[in-house]
Design a protein that fits this description.
The complex is a heterotrimer of chains A (327), B (326) and C (318).
Chain A lengths: L3 E13 L4 H7 L5 E13 L3 E5 L6 H8 L7 E6 L2 E2 L6 H8 L2 E4 L13 H12 L5 H14 L16 H13 L5 E5 L7 H18 L2 E6 L2 H7 L2 E6 L2 E7 H6 L4 H9 L38 H5 L11 H4 L4
Parallel strand pairs in A: 3-8, 3-9, 6-7, 7-8
Antiparallel strand pairs in A: 1-2, 1-4, 4-5, 9-10
Helix pairs in contact in A: 4-5, 4-6, 5-6, 6-7
Chain B lengths: L5 E12 L2 E13 L4 E5 L6 H8 L8 E9 L2 E2 L5 H7 L4 E4 L3 H4 L6 H12 L4 H14 L5 H4 L9 H13 L5 E5 L7 H18 L2 E6 L2 H7 L2 E6 L2 E7 H6 L4 H9 L38 H5 L5 E4 L2 E3 L11
Parallel strand pairs in B: 3-8, 3-9, 6-7, 7-8
Antiparallel strand pairs in B: 1-2, 1-4, 4-5, 9-10, 10-12, 11-12
Chain C lengths: L9 H14 L1 H8 L1 H18 L1 H4 L21 E2 L6 E2 L10 H37 L1 H16 L2 H15 L2 H36 L2 H8 L4 H37 L11 H9 L8 H28 L5
Antiparallel strand pairs in C: 1-2
Helix pairs in contact in C: 3-5, 3-12, 5-6, 5-8, 5-10, 5-11, 5-12, 6-8, 7-8, 8-10, 9-10, 10-11, 10-12, 11-12
Classes of the chains: A alpha/beta (327), B alpha/beta (326), C mainly alpha (318).
């Protein structure tokens, strides 16, 4: 069995943002695309947490949605346990693979159907993947799952709006675990939660990972959370990977100028009153990204080459300055 | 020592509902000194935004201040009629909200909004007000301010808009700025810029800041003192560094431990069990008692008030001698 | 979706449900609005009167055997000069008791209005769900048709459909099928509103992550629509359904007034008004007046209920 559970190769996704056909013809406009994700390649090791960090427009949620099949890639490939997820899996094979992965979403209220009781929500994967299971067995399993995530089996009779934000995320986690998956994509699972509740959920996710040997792809904009959760980290900027490295190495020795800037910018309670380097500029619009290296307008090390040539991801970092030894 | 800019005493805000009266704030007292940055931190529903709204007299109906006093530079403002309060807001207290679009009217150019605000509060000619506005926009870091001042709000990015709001909040030279989650909607790299701009400008004009946020990191980097709120009450208030390094209230201690850090590699975060009670179900005694690791019998029956345990530090917890009952 | 939820004993559940209903925000907002309470009472009274007509009506106006032409044109609240029978709302030219005809007429009006609205809802909700969920060409096609239809007055559409049906159905069966043709015409004329609303709500729900979660599991789109999205778009349907009921009742009355609705042997409120208007200028005002007032009360009270429901279900207005 290979060490790698999930791998993406040159994953690319464009969104058509053109005006309607008639307007285009009348106004003589070209079709317009947003390149949300461009040439993203990474691999996720079994039983580990791979984090994707980035700010708005970085394409992190688009990648998450492509992995779980909610969006089709424009180009590139995703392989899960050696099998391609892009080249149309059908029938039984697809079902077998689908039951192995799950997703946890950012807004726990929107990810639970407000008209369903918690029991039915948590049991949904069981109905899909274990059709022959009887009502009694299913109900028992739901009770088990609710207990596992720190709720009580009696909570099953309630509706999602009767819970707090943290409890709702627990329900979503229980649903994700119902069909015993081994891979979970977590899209900003705690960014809608308060700090003390976030700690509960992060701890719970770590415990569950240890207990069931889960593999996570963890999407977040919060560097502290990523630092706490991830074994490996990929830093995204405007749809491209800027840097990939082991979590510890990345935080101890950030190489890409963007990663450095991010680490510099994060307000951290440890660094009370420290003087800070001024961060320059804002993220450009992904509709009209700068040519060359997407980060060059904000980069202190940018030169002529950076303005025209897109740096490839070599040795875990996509930066001409690093490759040329200027950084 | 100078007199405080803002002095809040025993502030209590109630919301009558058909299920009974909800106490949103109870016995909140604090001072803000000239030029000081006071951070107000807490989780959603702790009452931090409500405190800000009470100070500027903008509590949503049917809420009302049931008890307590608010003084701005020695003048009582909690019972001012609305017309006089309108003169206080904008002129003497500037406001910055989470969503810049709530402070900016999308139908007017930036120039019109800032010039109008300046001229409402300061005796300046149109030209002088405009020149002042351009200067302010330049100061908050809007490139090419003289030209961009005639743009509409939607022509700015989120970070730039928040800069405009800061300029708008400061244009009438207020003594106090209330910033309610000013950076929450922004990206990390932009957030740091906004905090810097806000801090620098207030230091320049001598305005004090009441910085309301859920992000302890922002407070650590910005504030001089911090008030930790829980269930409509101040659990602990003191100098920022002291509260972070050595939190006295078990809730603030838990809160600090719950924040993942960039430097330390902890296997597990400190976990406070449970969640903050709803306003309709605050337990008797100390409101934190169901979640507290150090709870003892007194906590279940007697409610502690935030009381001075060291010079400059007040804590509402029975673990410390000298704590008064609320 | 409740088949695996533990059930309590039925009696206790009912008591608990009642208590929950009385404590709910909806009931609270109902009680707080006197207009709504009055509208509910009026609507309920009229509906009961219509439903129970065969049992509570003082006379049977459609039984030729009981009709007495001598009793014709008896004024309201008086006894017939010939037979001594008392008529609260008077009689028409054929001696039919106006109160009884109103009771039976409301029955037909309500039946047609209600059935037509249900038909509109069935068509509109299905098409709205399909359009909102699929988007693209399906959406464009359905919504363009709806747009075209909405740009014509509903009554015109109903007349058109009515005319086509007249041409298709053999003459000897036209009378017996008139009610069904009427329901079809009004139902088809009103679906577009529902389709539009449901499409909008579906497009909102479709983006939500509970739908994404179901998609990731590979749940069939039809099941997603039926189990996930449909329960979440019923609120607005209920609101416009109520207002639509009032509209359908008025449309039925209009069609019957124009003489293309139900046959005079089985008069609805509209037919009664048409009959009554012939006598307005000869002084027998009551033959027109009472059916007219009933129609206004019925449409108005149902409409007010719809308005209240819209406000009560809309959290922004609370």
């Amino acid at each position: 069995m290979s060490d790698i559970l999930l791998e993406t190769r040159n994953l690319t996704r464009r969104f058509d943002v053109s005006a309607p056909w008639l307007n285009r013809k009348l106004e003589g406009k070209e079709k317009a695309y947003v390149k949300a994700v461009t040439d993203v390649s990474f691999s996720v090791r079994r039983g580990e947490t791979f984090a994707l960090v980035g700010e708005s427009g970085s394409g992190k949620s688009t990648i998450a949605r492509m992995i779980v099949g909610l969006l089709e890639p424009t180009a590139g490939d995703i392989t899960f346990d050696g099998r391609s997820l892009v080249e149309g899996l059908r029938g039984r094979e697809a079902r077998r693979l689908r039951r192995r992965f799950q997703m946890i979403f950012q807004d726990p209220l929107a990810s639970l159907n407000p008209r369903w009781r918690v029991t039915d929500i948590v049991a949904e994967p069981l109905r899909v993947f274990e059709r022959r299971q009887g009502d009694r067995a299913r109900r028992a399993r739901v009770g088990e799952l609710l207990t596992l995530v720190g709720l009580s089996p009696e909570d099953g009779a309630k509706f999602p709006h009767q819970f707090s934000g943290g409890q709702r995320q627990r329900i979503a986690i229980a649903r994700a675990l119902a069909a015993r998956p081994d891979f979970i994509v977590c899209d900003e699972p705690t960014s809608a939660l308060d700090v003390s509740v976030q700690a509960q959920i992060l701890n719970l996710m770590k415990d569950l990972q240890a207990e069931f040997g889960l593999t996570y792809v963890f999407i977040s904009h919060n560097l502290q959370v990523v630092r706490h959760m991830a074994n490996q980290i990929g830093v995204l900027y405007l749809g491209r990977l800027a840097e990939v490295n082991d979590a510890e190495a990345l935080f101890a020795n950030p190489r890409h100028p963007y990663t450095r800037m991010l680490l510099e910018a994060v307000p951290d309670i440890e660094m009370t009153g420290r003087p800070r380097k001024r961060v320059e500029g804002e993220i450009p619009s992904p509709i009209d990204p700068p040519p060359g290296c997407p980060f060059h307008p904000r980069c202190p090390l940018a030169n002529e080459r950076c303005r025209v040539e897109v740096p490839p991801l070599l040795d875990g970092v996509a930066c001409h300055a690093v490759h040329e030894g200027r950084a | 020592m100078a007199d405080p800019i803002l002095s809040v005493r025993d502030l209590t805000v109630e919301f009558p509902t058909r299920h009974g009266i909800l106490t949103a704030l109870s016995g909140v007292s604090f001072d803000i000194m000239p030029g000081e940055v006071l951070g107000v931190v807490g989780e959603s529903g702790a009452g931090k935004s409500m405190t800000g709204s009470a100070v500027i007299g903008l509590i949503d109906r049917p809420g009302r201040i049931a008890k307590g006093e608010i003084h701005l530079q020695g003048e009582r403002i909690d019972n001012l009629p609305e017309e006089r309060m309108r003169g206080v807001r904008g002129k003497r207290i500037g406001m910055i909200f989470q969503d810049p679009l709530t402070s900016l009217n999308p139908l007017y150019r930036i120039s019109e909004q800032i010039v109008e605000t300046i001229r409402t509060h300061l005796p300046l000619s149109k030209e002088a007000a405009r020149a002042k506005a351009v200067g302010l926009l330049d100061r908050v870091g809007i490139p090419d301010a003289a030209r961009r001042i005639d743009d509409y709000p939607h022509q700015f990015s989120g970070g730039m808009r928040q800069r405009v709001v800061i300029a708008l909040a400061l244009c009438a030279e207020p003594d106090l700025v209330i910033a309610d989650e000013p950076t929450t909607a922004l990206d990390v790299s932009v957030q740091a810029q906004i905090i810097d701009v806000m801090k620098e400008l207030c230091a320049e004009t001598g305005a004090a800041i009441m910085l309301i946020t859920h992000d302890m990191g922002v407070i650590a980097e910005t504030a001089d003192r911090v008030a930790v709120m829980y269930a409509g009450r101040i659990a602990e208030i003191g100098p920022v560094r002291a509260v972070i390094k050595d939190a006295k209230h078990p809730y603030s201690a838990g809160l600090m431990g719950a924040i993942p850090r960039m430097s330390a590699d902890l296997e597990r975060l400190v976990q406070i069990p449970g969640a903050m009670p709803r306003l309709s179900a605050i337990p008797p005694g100390c409101p934190f008692n169901p979640r507290c690791p150090h709870v003892f019998d007194r906590c279940l029956t007697h409610r502690p008030a935030a009381s001075e345990i060291e010079p400059g530090r007040r804590v509402a917890c029975w673990l410390y001698p000298g704590v008064q009952e609320a | 979706m409740t088949d695996i939820t533990p059930r309590a004993a039925p009696g206790r559940t009912r008591a608990r449900l009642l208590r929950r209903a009385l404590a709910s925000d909806i009931f609270y907002s109902w009680r707080r609005s006197p207009v709504t309470v009055i509208a509910s009472v009026v609507a309920l009274a009229l509906i009961l009167m219509a439903v129970l007509a065969p049992w509570i009506a003082p006379y049977d106006p459609f039984n030729p055997a009981s009709l007495n032409l001598m009793e014709g044109f008896t004024p309201p609240a008086s006894e017939s000069a010939f037979t001594g029978n008392y008529f609260l709302m008077g009689t028409d030219n054929q001696g039919r008791d106006v109160l009884s005809t109103i009771m039976y007429g409301s029955r037909i009006s309500l039946f047609v209005g209600f059935s037509a609205t249900v038909l509109s809802i069935l068509i509109g909700v299905s098409l709205g769900l399909a359009a909102g969920y699929n988007g693209g060409a399906v959406d464009s096609t359905i919504m363009r048709v709806a747009d075209v239809q909405l740009s014509f007055p509903a009554i015109l559409i109903a007349l058109l459909i009515f005319g086509v049906a007249r041409g298709v159905i053999p003459p000897n069966r036209q009378e017996s099928m008139a009610v069904w043709v009427l329901i079809l015409a009004i139902g088809l004329a009103n679906w577009a509103q529902f389709a539009r609303t449901v499409r909008g709500a579906t497009m909102v729900e479709r983006q939500k992550d509970y739908v994404s979660a179901a998609k990731i599991m590979g749940v069939h789109p039809a099941l997603i629509l039926l189990r996930h999205i449909l329960p979440n778009v019923t609120g607005p349907v209920l609101v416009i359904g109520t207002i639509g009921l009032a509209l359908a009742i008025i449309e039925e009355a209009t069609l019957s007034y124009l003489g293309v609705g139900v046959p005079p042997t089985q008069p609805s409120l509209g037919t009664l008004i048409r009959i009554g208007q012939q006598f307005l200028f000869s002084g027998e005002w009551w033959i027109l007046f009472f059916p007219g007032v009933t129609l206004v009360l019925l449409a108005l009270s149902v409409n007010l209920l719809g308005d209240w429901l819209r406000d009560a279900l809309n959290p922004k207005l609370r």
